Amino acid sequence: MLFWVIVLADIIAGHMLFGTAAFLLAPPVALLDGISWPLWLQILIGFLLSDLLEYGLHRLAHRWPWLWRLHSVHHSDPQLDATTALRAHPLETFLYIPPKLALYTLLGLPFWIEGLRAILHNAWLIVQHADVRFPGGMETLRWLLVTPGLHHLHHAQDRLTHDHNFGQIFSFWDRLFGTYLPPEGRPKPLTGLAGYGGEEWQSVYGMMTHPFRKPPDTRVENHLR
After folding, report:
1. Is the Cβ–Cβ distance between 49 and 101 less than 8 Å?
2. Does residue 13 sit within a domain?
3. What is the pLDDT of residues 198-207, one digit of tens each?
4. Phi then psi for 197, rounded to 5 degrees?
5. Most distant CA pair in the chain: distance in Å?
6. Is residue 24 domain-resident?
7. Which of 53, 73, 136, 194 makes the best surface tag, with the fewest CB within 10 Å?
8. Does the model's pTM come out above 0.85?
9. Is 19 within the bounds of a domain?
């Protein structure tokens, strides 16, 4: 019996893996067909526009109450560190997929470009959230990239502070759209969300049910939209 279970699992897993590979490598049927772009330009366009899309979605997640309920799971971590980069509600992650598919379909770009960007992006997210001392030169990159100093401000409890620096990889979107906030002259922010530090919110069950529960009773309501 176990043998056939393993065989069935291998067939299903293999089908999914090969199907995913074909999906990533084959360019979609595009609405903007007829434009022949060199590979380097396709990658550049994919990286830039995908990052711009995520910037826009991130701003909406801070503005729309129902999206904030999902996104606040990420912000509710009281101790900002590398694990915070992986802390996201599955429903929020799922909601990011259709816009990305629509973008790449519109442009006719192969989806492997987004796969490559995701690998680099996920690694940079860990750097952004890490609670370690980086070389001073790291922050000189903020003219181009969202550095740890910029992103730590985004996790401040104070809403007036955390409603800035929405960029994912590139910092120039915040500069362009007026949401850039430099860390100079500001103390290290208190991170997390007021009232969400208890085990009932920080456990796996607490994080999964977080968006569907009444917010904690607290006089500090910077997290409310």
Report:
1. no
2. no
3. 899 999 999 9
4. -85, -10
5. 66
6. no
7. 136
8. no
9. no
